[in-house]
Amino acid sequence: MDIQNSTEELYFILLGLSQYPRAQTVFFCLLLMSYIITLLGNSLVLLLICYDPRLHTPMYFFISNLSFLDMCYTTSSVPQTLINCLVTIPAISLGQCLAQMAAELYLGVVECLLLAAMAYDRCVAIGDPLSYSVHMGPRLCGLLAGTSWTAAFLLTVVLVMTMPLEFCGRQVINHFSCELLALLKLACSDLHFYELIMVGISALALLAPFAFIVASYGRILVAVLRIQSTEGRGKAFSTCGSHLIVVALFYGTAISMYMTPQDKTTHDRDKIISISYSILTPMMNPLIYSLQNKDMKGAFRRLLGRRTDL
């Protein structure tokens, strides 16, 4: 299984849970169920937002972006992981591995930046509600969303283009997918310069948006405390509470993975953390962010009513 200096394409073995056959069977069932829930939940959110004109607001524009992103994010790795659970030797070529890694990185960075844009939207909505509709117009919303997708692409290109491609030792990735950190553990070249690049990119993609979100919610808290009515405060907290849960789930796991010292061994803890931000968070987003919302429930009832009338 050693990598040889030849012109043949390299292949890697994605170990996953193959050393635990019984656990792998259970994992396959749970993963398939979570993937189906993710696709159905986020598809329903997109359908409701597109269908109901009452949801054509800045907040739901960003939610629709998030739902589409989550569908792409899970699809970038979950189908391959499901297939690997069914084969004896879950092999993947170097080209496929790099493509999967780049897609996961790109979509993960987009989510980081998009959550920051959503925090800004909530900050304006609660801090300056009278001018909210004017300030958060279609042009600014499109600019914030477009910047998130474009900036994430540029940051991902830097990471991928500077990544060392010299691998040595056994071609076994002790992970479910070709995640960047798991793949780097097989690199035999000097990683000091690349690690500096990773720190810089992580600061821009993780720490800076997270700091912006914290600052935004600091301003939101000040604005909420100024609200006189209890009902108004409750509405403001309920509007922001779901977003805070999503931020805590996604940023907490991602920062613990990419902003902590790494060694040359992939631990089971790393796999669990990876599942949290790449599978569980996209599955939970529609449940805790959108479908529990009163406006979304109303849109769902109106959709069902129209379908019944037809």
UniProtKB/TrEMBL annotation:
Annotated membrane topology: Multi-pass membrane protein
GO MF term (any one): G protein-coupled receptor activity
Keywords (A to Z) from UniProt: Cell membrane, G-protein coupled receptor, Membrane, Olfaction, Receptor, Sensory transduction, Transducer, Transmembrane, Transmembrane helix
Principal cellular location given in the protein's record: membrane
Domain G-protein coupled receptors family 1 profile intervals: 41-289
GO cellular component: plasma membrane
Classification via Gene3D superfamilies: Rhodopsin 7-helix transmembrane proteins
Subcellular compartments: Cell membrane
Keyword Membrane on entry: yes
Pfam families found in the cross-reference section: 7tm_4
Chain segments annotated as transmembrane: 25-51, 140-161, 193-215, 236-260, 272-291
Known function: Putative odorant or sperm cell receptor.
Similarity comment: Belongs to the G-protein coupled receptor 1 family.
Name of this protein: Olfactory receptor
